[in-house]
Specification:
There is one protein chain. The chain is an alpha+beta fold. The strands form 4 sheets. Strands 2, 4, 5, 8 and 9 form a 5-stranded mixed sheet that branches. A hairpin with a 4-residue loop joins β8 and β9. α7 runs antiparallel to α11. The termini are far apart.
C-alpha cells in the first residue's frame, strides 16, 4: 500500500514541477531579443558637445559605443529659456538614439541630458550643451535628478550577496543529503538550512526586480509609485534582466516540489536528475542578467559564469555541511567513507572554479594593464588573492584526509573548514561588488577610459547642507567634477549658484576656477585640468538663497 501512495505523490510533484516550468517558458517567450553590449558610453553626438551651429537642428543624435535601451522620460533637450525643446519620443536603433527637436527654437545654449540602460542592466547617464547662433547662459534641467540613489546602489549589492549566500545554503544540503548523508543521522538541520537557502534565493530575486526600478529610473528605495514609474516597471519586466529573474522564480517554484522528498529521504534517480536539470537551468539566469550576457563572447561567458557559480555553490555548500553537521555528528567509520569522496568533489569543484575564473578574466579584463588601472581589475586581484589563501587551507585539509587522520581526529579539519568558510564569505562580498562594477575591458577603453577606474567620491557636511563630490579619473590632466547637494533629511537641496576652485598648495599652484554647469537644481557638473599629482584642495561654495551659502573643502588625491 505504501508503494501505491508514494507513486501518486511523485507524479503530483512532477506535475507541480511542470507547472513551474510553464511559468519559466512563458517568461522566456515574453523576453525580448537584445543585442550584446555592456556599460555603453557616449561616443559622439550631433550636434557635437559644446559646438555652435548656425541654425537649429531638427534632431539630436546620440551615438553610444554599444546598444542601449530607453528609460521613460529620462532623455531631455532643454531650450535656453528652460522649456523642453524635444518633441515626441526618442527612437532607439542599437547604439543610436535620435531625439526630435523643434528646429525653430530660440538662439542660445541648449542642454541635452540623458539616462539609458545598457544590455547588462546598468544605467548610463550624462549631459552636454550645444549652442544655436551664439552661446548663452546654459539652462537648468528642472526634471528630477536621474542619478541612482546611493542607498539603492548599496541595496542592489546586498541583494546579490544574499542570492549567492542562499545558493550556497541550498545546494550544499541538497547535494550532501542526496549522496553523502549517513542514514542514522537526523536530516532536520540540513533540511532547514536548505529551505532557508531557497527562501534567500527567492527573496534576493524579488528584491533584484524591485530595486531595478529605482536603479533604472533614479530615485530612492521606495520611489516606485511616482509619475513614469509604471513605464519603468514595464521596461524592467520586459527586458532580458526581468525575463531572467522571472525564469529563476519559475524554476525555483518547480524545484520546491521535487526538493521536498529529496530532503526528507533519499530521492529516486529520476527525481534527482530532473532536479539537477532545473538547478543547472536556474544557474544560467545569473549570467543572463549581468555582464556575461553582454560580453564580446556571450555564449562562452554565460556558460563559464554558470559553471563558476555552480562550482562555488557545491564547494562552499559542502564545506558548510562538513563544518556544521558531519564533522560533529558522524562517527569515525562514517567520516572514513565520506571525507575521501568529498575531497574528490572539492578538488573537481575548485578546478572548475579556477578554469572558469581564468576564462572570465581573459574576457572581462582583456589586458594585463587593466588589472591595475581599473576598479574591476583591482577587485579581481583582491578576489584572486583571497582565493589563493583558501586554496592553501583546502590543500592542508586534503592532506589530512589523504593521511587518514581526519576521520580519527576531525577537529583540525573542522578548524580548517571554518577558516575556508570565513574567507570565502569575503570572496562572495567581493563578487557581489564585481557584478555591479564596469568590466575592465569597457572601463579601460573608449572616451570614458579611466572614469570609473579612478573615481574619487566623498561627502562633505556643513550646518546648511551636505555636498557629495565626485572627481574622475582623479589623475593628472582633464578631470570631470560632479557636485550633488542634499539637505539635512538627505533629500536633494536646491542650489541657486555653485562656485568651485582647485588648488595644490604643496606645489605652489594657486586656486584654479572650475567652470560649473547646473544640470538640475541640486546637481552641477564641470571639467578642470589638473596639471600635477598631489593632494588637491577643491573648495566648493553653494548658495541656496540670496543670503544663505555654505563653503566646504575636499582634499582629492590626484595620481
Amino acid at each position: 500500500m505504501s508503494g501505491m501512495t508514494v507513486a501518486p505523490r511523485r507524479w503530483a510533484a512532477r506535475l507541480a514541477a511542470a507547472a513551474g516550468l510553464l511559468v519559466t517558458v512563458v517568461a522566456l517567450l515574453i523576453a525580448p531579443a537584445t543585442s550584446a553590449s555592456a556599460h555603453a558610453v557616449l561616443e559622439s553626438s550631433s550636434p557635437a558637445a559644446s559646438s555652435i551651429v548656425p541654425s537649429g537642428p531638427s534632431e539630436v543624435v546620440l551615438t553610444f559605443s554599444e546598444s542601449v535601451r530607453k528609460v521613460p522620460d529620462k532623455i531631455r533637450v532643454i531650450a535656453p529659456d528652460g522649456s523642453r525643446a524635444d518633441r515626441g519620443e526618442p527612437s532607439f536603433s542599437g547604439g543610436v538614439v535620435t531625439i526630435p527637436v523643434d528646429p525653430a527654437g530660440a538662439r542660445g545654449t541648449y542642454l541635452v541630458s540623458f539616462r539609458v540602460i545598457s544590455a547588462d542592466s546598468h544605467p548610463v547617464s550624462g549631459a552636454f550643451t550645444y549652442s544655436v547662433g551664439a552661446p548663452s547662459t546654459p539652462p537648468v534641467d528642472s526634471g528630477t535628478d536621474s542619478r541612482a540613489n546611493p542607498v539603492v546602489e548599496t541595496a542592489v549589492k546586498v541583494a546579490r550577496f544574499l542570492g549567492y549566500a542562499g545558493l550556497v545554503l541550498l545546494v550544499g544540503p541538497a547535494l550532501v543529503l542526496a549522496a553523502l548523508w549517513p542514514r542514522r543521522l537526523s536530516r532536520r538541520g540540513p533540511t532547514r538550512l536548505a529551505w532557508i537557502g531557497l527562501g534567500l534565493v527567492a527573496f534576493a530575486t524579488l528584491a533584484d526586480l524591485w530595486l531595478q526600478v529605482p536603479y533604472t529610473a533614479g530615485g530612492g528605495l521606495f520611489d516606485v509609485t511616482g509619475e513614469g514609474f509604471g513605464s519603468v516597471f514595464g521596461s524592467v519586466f520586459g527586458s532580458a534582466f526581468g525575463a531572467a529573474h522571472l525564469v529563476r522564480l519559475g524554476l525555483l517554484a518547480a524545484s520546491v516540489f521535487l526538493l521536498r522528498p529529496l530532503l526528507a529521504r533519499p530521492a529516486g534517480r529520476a527525481d534527482a536528475i530532473i532536479l539537477a536539470v532545473l538547478g543547472g537551468a536556474a544557474l544560467l539566469t545569473w549570467p543572463l542578467a549581468g555582464h556575461p550576457a553582454a560580453s564580446p563572447a556571450p555564449a562562452v561567458s554565460v556558460v563559464v559564469d554558470a559553471v563558476h557559480l555552480g562550482s562555488m555553490a557545491v564547494w562552499l555548500g559542502g564545506l558548510l555541511m562538513l563544518a556544521v553537521f558531519l564533522l560533529r555528528q558522524a562517527d569515525e567509520r562514517e567520516l572514513g567513507a565520506i571525507l575521501p569522496i568529498w575531497s574528490r568533489w572539492a578538488a573537481l569543484a575548485v578546478s572548475a572554479l579556477l578554469l572558469a575564473g581564468t576564462v572570465q578574466a581573459l574576457i572581462e579584463v582583456a589586458t594585463p594593464q587593466a588589472l591595475f588601472d581599473t576598479t574591476y581589475g583591482r577587485l579581481l586581484l583582491a578576489k584572486i588573492g583571497l582565493f589563493a589563501l583558501v586554496i592553501g587551507v583546502a590543500a592542508y585539509s586534503r592532506q589530512l584526509v589523504r593521511s587518514r587522520v581526519a576521520a580519527q581526529r576531525p577537529a583540525p579539519v573542522r578548524r580548517a573548514v571554518l577558516v575556508e568558510l570565513a574567507v570565502t564569505v569575503v570572496v562572495l562580498a567581493v563578487s557581489a561588488t564585481l557584478v555591479q562594477t564596469t568590466p575592465a575591458r569597457t572601463a579601460a577603453a573608449g572616451p570614458s577610459a579611466g572614469a570609473e577606474s579612478g573615481l574619487f567620491s566623498t561627502r562633505l557636511s556643513s550646518p546648511l547642507l551636505s555636498v557629495e563630490v565626485e572627481v574622475s579619473p582623479a589623475e593628472r590632466g582633464n578631470n570631470s567634477v560632479h557636485l550633488y547637494a542634499y539637505d539635512k533629511d538627505n533629500k536633494p537641496q536646491l542650489v541657486a549658484e555653485w562656485k568651485a576652485t582647485a588648488a595644490l598648495p604643496s606645489a605652489g599652484i594657486e586656486p584654479i576656477e572650475v567652470p560649473l554647469l547646473r544640470l538640475t537644481d541640486s546637481h552641477a557638473y564641470g571639467d578642470v585640468s589638473l596639471p600635477a599629482a598631489g593632494d588637491w584642495e577643491i573648495k566648493i561654495t553653494a548658495r541656496t538663497t540670496d543670503i544663505d551659502q555654505a563653503t566646504v573643502t575636499a582634499t582629492v588625491p590626484i595620481r
